[in-house]
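Appendix B, example 12.
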Amino acid sequence: MRLYRPGVIALALGLVAGVAAVVTITRPAAAEQTQKVSYRGYQVTVPASWPVIDLAKNPSTCVRLDQPAVYLGRSTAQADCPAHAVGRSEGIVLEPLTKATPSAPGLMRRTVKDAGVLATAYYAPGDEQEATELLATGRVTSKTASTQVVEPAAVTPSIVATGKFTGGAFDACTAPPQSTMDAWLPDYQALGIYISGGLRACAQPNLTADWVSTNAGKGWQFLLIDVGLQAPCSNLSSKMSTVPATAYAQGKTAAGNAVTAAQALGFAQRSAIYSDIEAYASTAACKAAVLSYLTGWTQELNARGYLGGTYVGAASGGVDLNSAYGSTSYTHPDNLWFARWNNVADVTDDKYISSTNWTNHQRVHQYAGNVNETHGGVSLNIDKNWADLTPPPPPVTGFGVTGGVNRATLKWTNPAGTTLGQILVRGASGNAAPSLPKYGTAVYAGTGTTYTQTGLANSSSYAYQAWVKDSTGKIGPGVTTRLIGTKSTMTASTSSLVYGGSVTLSSTFTRIDSGAKLTGVPVYLYKRAKNVSTWSYVGPLTTNTSGAVSSVQKPTVSTYYTWGYNGSTGLLGTRSPSYLVQVKPTISAYLSPATIKLGATSVFYGYLNPPHAGTSIYLQRWTGTAWGGVATAKVASNGKYTFTVKPPAARGKYSYRVVWLADADHQGTLTPTKVLTVS
């Protein structure tokens, strides 16, 4: 491949056309070093050194974005472009406004409806301000009738690039017109196209979703190329950072932009996108930057369901990638497209790249470059490649999760026609699923279609991703599903009541991600006696429009309560904190007689309800400073207790009470104080 420094290659004089009727050029005095260029009633001010090229007069001119110029009009004819060019200068393209076209990295666009013009300022990475200033010089000099701007039709990505393919492929700087594509079939059936990147050097007037769809329907396969930041030690001006962490982030950003461009053209998940890293004189620092950039590139593409590929010179990037193939510090690209112009149409390179790496139909070899070929009477300047590629398997479908209490049941459908190796499912707490099969917690690996994970935390959310790994080891796009945690509160009108009393227990159920109330869902009130471990449920009940529910209970023994929601599709079940409601037995007390003569006795008796036959009950007397034990009795089968009271041998008033201590079922209780008078 040939390299072009941005802005250093001048246009041949033969490319500069005469001025058409719709174009006027006003050249100012030399001191100003600017010129005003008008097109269809829209005028911009540009450097006087920029050539102005009218594509209506020269439709085969290659619109070169690596050279400063003003291009007027739009041509989809076969352009006289080199096979490959990399780099970016600054310039502007003014063309008829027919449809809304968004800006892209390196291409800043303005729609000028009053003049019916689309203005595209192209610029090198980091030079956005210059492009903004250039577009700011634009003004409408004469209005045209209102222009109808067509919004691009929504594109559903459906084309996989590349499918299963072994054979010859070519790449050219700009996507050829349809007539050329038709003429070159069936001699070629695959080509490389430059879909994205701030250093694409050729405009792509033919590269549209319709063009892709039409040619895919005719059997063409595609190699998708992104031309972004280059190695720090390359001779190009737009370079990735020498700081590995920054280069990694730059690779991720480039991958995200590339996916956006691919999807706009109709290329679906499972497609491979190749980062074009031109030849460089490697050093240790430069190698670390390139490998970090391509790690970020590959990981981000994989996370989005695409393959990360790279185009490199075999003697530079190929050597560096090969040496780090098994490293745990970097992620190697899924596919390797290497340039070694040895005129041998194969995918091996014993000199620079080991035969044990990228062996699973993952290679493209550019074996010749800058070649003029003619097919069907149409000539192109191309680079020639030999490819051996297969796509990864399609994803599972219907991946979903149903929550239970502390468990998740995952279900999916395996893709038809795929020889499975494994279905890989990994999970993570929170709302973000593991982006790659090496992240998160391993949940499942097998060939089934359902799995139940247990041991999940209460009131927590989980996210899962499932991948198909085929029998060759290739891993397809991941599919995610989320299990949202829920939460329930517990409030009670009292924590202690006497036997026969009641308590009102209430709860509100919410999603933990948004706080939204769970309305109209079945919930349960669970209970267990204090001295047992098994829960039973009361209900079901249904939450109201505020996600709230309540229940009145009359426990006969001390009882724990908890509210529960058992989960549903996408929602994890929950249990509220448990709450203990203590129950005291009722106890009556009688002292007869209440007044006695010195030396006589009285009877202190009463009933404990519920009866606790055979349990001990204690008579106590107030000594003036504390309650002291007097006697112990047993509760009868009907709950009655009886004490014969003989006070001390002194006249006066004596206070007595009876105490029953707590057991496993009930709180302890005591009688009111009774006063015995001795006269």
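The radius of gyration is 41 Å. The CA atoms of residues 160 and 271 lie 5 Å apart.
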